[in-house]
Write a structure and sequence with these properties.
The chain is an alpha/beta fold. The chain folds into two domains: about 210 residues, P-loop containing nucleotide triphosphate hydrolases (Rossmann fold, 3-Layer(aba) Sandwich); about 120 residues, Zinc Finger, Delta Prime, domain 3 (Up-down Bundle), CATH 1.20.272.10. Helix content is about 55%, strand content about 5%. α7 links the parallel β3 and β4. The model has no long low-confidence stretch (mean pLDDT about 90).
Length: about 375
């Protein structure tokens, strides 16, 4: 990954180049972002630049042996750490012994296909989407041991931590000395979209850098680099909040989108007709989606739909990013829903997503959501 391969983020790129060229590379960095906005490819480009012996014009050469290995994520001095648990690919290992290396192949396949991947994309790729994952003490022990041996090629040893908010206390205690005083020419990069949940003992030892959302044109370029172009890509670039990862998710999940559209239509008809029995049937359907991540994806889809209804109610059709077919449906809802409903619904959806993160009983949570929506319409 070269800096030139990543649209936008010019300020972050300049800061990284300044660090590398001046020799003032921090031993621990934290890149925080709205999920899927490009922190991971930026980290890869920075580490490739550090490792490249022929870098020039503000970028790695992209063709030397080091760059080739970095671009394929097989460089011996590049390590990845992410939350794990037992899954269909972990064999008979106990959860406490499952580390990132076990899932090296599916992780690499995912990251090469989509460097803007989301948290639940990773969970699905390694087959642990239905389980709570963490970065455990065995992972920390092995990493400390690896780094103590130094670089294989005499350059930088680098580690990218994904979702560092899931480092458990025992692992954090094991890592603290390494984070504070790593071996010479070692860099640790922590990437998170929940910086407030990272343990303070870790966050305080890192130099923080904000990775901002991309603008619409930059997202379109990122999507094109991943092979996604056309009208659907343009719509998603407009509504994804500057996150190519979210846009790619929506473009790739055509089956989920169809299911979500059906669920949303069912719910709205039940609410508008004041049919409480149908509303409660919707609760069952939502609970049966399976994973929390899919349930959160539906909440995001519903939020997107209600946003379009809201802007149409405000006679701002230019801000409704949707197909002509969907626009007709949203116009119909706009004429039937109270103007206060969309705003109130957004608050309820945000609250529901926050509660899902806290592992509350799902059926009770969704029943509460539907009851409140029922009273709001």
């Amino acid at each position: 990954m070269r800096f030139a391969d990543i649209p936008g983020h010019e300020g972050v790129k300049r800061a990284m180049l300044s660090m590398a060229d001046s020799g003032r590379v921090p031993h621990a960095m934290m890149l925080y972002e709205n999920e899927g906005c490009g922190a991971f490819p930026l980290a890869l480009a920075f580490l490739q630049y550090l490792a490249c012996p022929n870098r020039h014009d503000g970028d790695s050469c992209g063709s030397c042996p080091s760059c080739n290995r970095m671009s394929k994520l097989i460089h011996p001095d590049l390590h990845f750490v992410f939350p794990t648990n037992t899954g269909r690919l972990s064999g008979s290992l106990e959860a406490k012994n499952v580390v990132s290396e076990v899932y090296e192949a599916p992780f690499r396949e995912l990251a090469l296909a989509n460097p803007y991947f989301l948290e639940d994309d990773l969970s699905a790729a390694i087959g642990v989407e239905a389980k709570a994952c963490d970065i455990n003490v065995e992972e920390a022990r092995r990493l400390v041991s690896k780094l103590s041996m130094g670089s294989f090629e005499g350059g930088w040893s680098s580690v990218i931590f994904l979702q560092p908010e899931k480092i458990n206390i025992q692992a954090a205690n094991k890592l603290l000395k390494t984070i504070e005083e790593p071996p010479e020419k070692t860099i640790l990069i922590f990437i998170t979209h929940k910086p407030d949940k990272v343990l303070p003992t870790i966050a305080s030892r890192c130099q923080a850098m904000r990775v901002s959302p991309m603008d619409r044109t930059e997202v379109e370029r990122a999507l094109a680099a991943c092979g996604k172009t056309g009208a659907a890509a343009a719509v998603q670039a407009a509504i994804c909040g500057g996150s190519p990862g979210r846009a790619l998710r929506e473009l790739g999940d055509s089956e989920d989108r169809s299911l979500f559209r059906e669920l949303f239509s069912r719910l709205m008809e039940a609410l508008l007709s004041k049919d409480l029995a149908d509303c409660l049937d919707f609760v069952e359907a939502l609970a049966e989606l399976g994973s929390k991540e899919k349930q959160k994806a539906f909440m995001a889809y519903m939020s997107e739909c209600l946003r379009n209804v809201f802007v149409l109610q405000q006679t701002l059709p230019q801000l409704a990013y949707c197909s002509d077919e969907d626009r007709e449906y949203y116009l119909s809802l706009a004429s039937r829903c109270p103007r206060s409903f969309c705003r109130r619904s957004q608050e309820l959806l945000d609250r529901t997503v926050a509660m899902l993160e806290r592992n509350v009983n799902q059926k009770i949570l969704f029943c509460d959501l539907v009851d409140r929506l029922f009273l709001s319409i």
